[in-house]
Amino acid sequence: MVFYIEKKLVVTVASSALFDMTASDMVFLEQGEDAYRDYQIQREKEPLNKGLAFAFIKRFLNLNNIAPDISPVEVVLLSRNDAETGLRVLNSIDHYGLNISRAAFTKGKPSYDYLEAFNSKLFLSQNKRDVAEAVAKGFAAGYIYGKPFEDNESDPEFRIAFDFDGILADDSAEQACKDYGMDEFFKMERCNAEKPLKQGPLKPFLEGISMLQKLEKQKKRQDIDYHPVIRVALATARNAPAHLRVIATLREWNVQVDETFFLGGVDKSRVLKVFKPHLFFDDTPYNISAVSEVAPAVHVPFGIMNL
Fold first, then answer.
1. Is the peptide bond before 241 cis (omega within 30 degrees of 0)?
2. Are strands 158-162 and 102-105 parallel, antiparallel or unpaired?
3. In this structure, which long-range contacts are made by residues 63-70, counting pairs with CB atoms below 8 Å and at least 24 apart in sequence?
4. Beta carbons of 142 and 122 less than 8 angstroms apart
5. CA terminus-to-terminus distance, the chain
6. Looking at 82, 113, 163, 267, which residue is catalytic?
7. CB 142 within 8 A of CB 131
8. Distance from C-alpha of 168 to C-alpha of 205, rounded to nearest angstrom
9. Is residue 60 a contact partner of residue 158, using CB atoms and an 8 Å limit?
10. HEC profile for 96-153?
11. I need a surface site. Which of 55, 123, 169, 285 has the fewest CB within 10 A?
12. 163 in active site
């Protein structure tokens, strides 16, 4: 039977992001490939500890409960191991009850080469080089920063937060601000207030999340007792009058977000500490560093902020 992955909202995740591979990676770096292979095979029935992306991936997979008849989301594991040394990862997936059945093992070759084949709308990794090269090839990819956060599994919500410029939209406004200065930037944004910006790397992923929210609205109409679980926030350094273009852009995309913060330079971690996203995406290393102290944060190395 054919599995139409192009009809799914797909997240691809590296084994290094899903699980804590610190100890095994150290064996590889210090002792080489043969020792690494022996290490993994000897421990293949020993579950790996949860990695930085684990809670997000688990909650993302739970979104299939919105429409179990079509199971709208899919997670695909990507690994630079071969299948034999990767068996420990597959066994760990089974140990934690994650509904991940599709994987690619590339034995040292870049796994991001297969992102298009798997219809990936987001690739999460702990390999900075893989992430940078995937973004350079036009894919949505991010490197997870910070420490593991204890997930409150009694809380049913799936919360996700995005920066705007260089993440959902392109970096043309950031380029203009750099070239002409803040005062001129505000004048330009006022003049272009009704002109939507072009898409950035995570726009297709946001559209997929928006599609799931629309499914939740349908479910709510059918079952008044159903409580939607998806909650989306936008945290941007823009403020008035530059806020108008954000609204025009999202309206053009037919996308709505639940909470929007026009911060004008206020530290994003202050509001995200309250929102408690399961992942926050930003293109600026400084913002990621601050937010990663209060929530899982993903750096997307796209555009002028990363030159």
1. yes
2. unpaired
3. 63/158, 63/212, 63/229, 63/230, 64/99, 66/212, 66/215, 66/216, 66/219, 66/229, 67/215, 67/219
4. yes
5. 46
6. 163
7. yes
8. 9
9. yes
10. CCCCCCEEEECCCCCHHHHCCCCCEEEEEECCHHHHHHHHHCCCCEEEEECCCCCCCC
11. 285
12. yes
Question: Would you say 255 and 206 are in contact if contact means Cβ atoms under 8 Å apart?
Answer: yes
Would you state the structure tokens that stand for residue 192, as one six-digit string? 């272009």
* 232: region left, alpha or beta (phi > 0 left; psi from -120 to 50 alpha): beta
The SS3 of residue 12 is strand
CA distance 243 to 197: 12
The pLDDT tens digits for 2-57 are 899 999 999 999 999 999 999 998 998 899 888 999 999 999 999 999 999 999 99
Which tokens sit at 4?
């139409």
Reference 244, options 266, 260, 267; nearest CA is 260
Closest CA to 298 of 306, 307, 287: 287
> Which tens digit of pLDDT belongs to each residue from 149-200?
889 889 999 999 999 999 999 998 888 778 777 777 778 878 887 889 999 9
Euclidean distance between CA atoms 149 and 26, whole angstroms: 23
Q: Parallel, antiparallel, or unpaired for β 297-299 and 141-145? A: antiparallel
For the stretch 43-50, contacts whose Cβ atoms lie closer than 8 Å and that sit 24 or more positions apart, written own/partner, are: 43/88, 44/87, 44/88, 44/91, 45/88, 45/91, 46/88, 47/91, 47/92, 47/95, 47/96, 48/19, 48/20, 48/21, 48/88, 48/89, 48/92, 49/19, 49/20, 50/19, 50/20, 50/96, 50/148
Q: Which residue type is seen at 207?
A: E
